[in-house]
Amino acid sequence: MAMVPSDRHSQHSEPAMARGSQTLMLAATLLAALLSVQAADLQRLQLIPEFAGLSAAALGAVQADAQCTTANPPGETEVNNVCDGCNAVKPCVSAGALGWVAGASQACPSSTPWCDNGVCVATTPTGSCNTAQPDPSFTCTSSGYFPNLSSCSKYWICIGNDGDPTSLLAYAGDCSAFSNAAYDPRTGQCVQKSQSTCTTVTCRGVGNQVYTPAPWMYVTCLSNSVTDALVVACANKNQSLTNGVCANACNSAGRFPWYDENSSTITDTASFYECVQNGKTFGSPVKGTCPTGSTFDVASSQCTTQGSQP
C-alpha cells in the first residue's frame, strides 16, 4: 500500500519559525534602542568641549567622575559644577548610562580664589580648605620660614623634626592677600613692599650662593633652574656661608658669642666677636677674648664671672 506524506512536521515547524522570527525582531528592536541610547550618551559627551570631535571609541572609554556623581544623586536637582580642590572648579555633564562626567578644571580668578560648593568666592570656605596642605614642590632642609626664590610675595613654612628630614613638610605662604605687601626674609613676616628686603634668585649652574637679604641663609643650585634649588639656613642667624661652612659673620651690629662652625653650640665660652655697622653693611667679625676667669654672658653681651649660655 502506498504511503501518504504527512504534513504534521510542517504544521509544527511554522509556529516555531514564527516564534523565532518574533524573537529576532524583539532583539533587533532592543539593540536599536540600546544603540539609540548610546548615541544619545555620546552626543551628551560631545557637549563638553574637551570631548568634542573624539571618535566613538574614544568617547566610549570616558568614565564617570566620582565628584560629579556624588554631587548628583538620583532624583535631586542637578549640580552642574563642583569644586576640584580648594581653588578650582570643574563642570559636570550627565551622559546617561555613562553616568556623570567632568570637563577640564578651571582655576578660580585671583579676585575670588576659593571654591565653595562649585562657585568661586572671595572668602575661604569652612572645612578642609581652612587646613593648609603640604606642598611637595619645595624641599625643606630644616624647620622655619624660607623665602620663595621666584616671588617676593610668597614664602615657605617648613614644619617637622630637624633630626628627621623625612618628617619635614613645606607649606606655601602668600603675602598678596594684603594690600601692597611682600615677604621680608629678615623678619619672616609680610610687610609693606617698601620695607621688604626680599630679592629673587637666578641659578647659573651648580653651586652655592649666599642669600643676601638674609645672609644666614644660602641657596644651593642643582641646575640652571631655580625651581630645583635648595634654601639652607645656618644653625643661627649670626652665621653665614663662608668657604663652604656656616661661620660666624656680621649680619647685624653687636657683640655675639663665638659659635662653633655649622652649629649653635658654644664650645669656646670665653670668646666673642663684635660687629660694627658701616653704612648699610656690618663689616667683618672681630674676635675678642674675655679676661681669665670670666666667660661671655649671652644675655648681657658682656664678660662676667657667671656667664649664661643659650
What's the tally of helices?
3
Portion of residues in helices?
Answer: 10-25%
Low-confidence stretches: 29-37
Distance between the termini: 131 Å
Q: Compute the average pLDDT.
A: 83
Structural class: alpha+beta
Radius of gyration computed on alpha carbons: 36 Å
Strand content: 25-35%
Specify the biggest β-sheet.
Answer: 4 strands, antiparallel
H/E series, N to C? Answer: HHHEEEEEEEEEEEEEEEEEEEEE
In total, how many beta strands? 21
Cα shape: elongated
Kindly list the characteristics that best describe this protein.
310 residues, alpha+beta, 4-stranded antiparallel sheet, 3-stranded antiparallel sheet, 21 strands
Walk me through the structure.
The protein is α+β, with helices and mostly antiparallel strands and 310 residues long. Among the domains are: 78-129, no CATH class; 234-310, no CATH class. It is built from 3 helices and 21 strands. The strands form 8 sheets. Strands 1, 2, 3 and 4 form a 4-stranded antiparallel beta sheet that branches. Strands 7-8-9 form a 3-stranded antiparallel beta sheet, with no helix packed on it. A 3-stranded antiparallel beta sheet has the order 12-13-14, with no helix packed on it. A hairpin with a 4-residue loop joins strand 10 and strand 11.
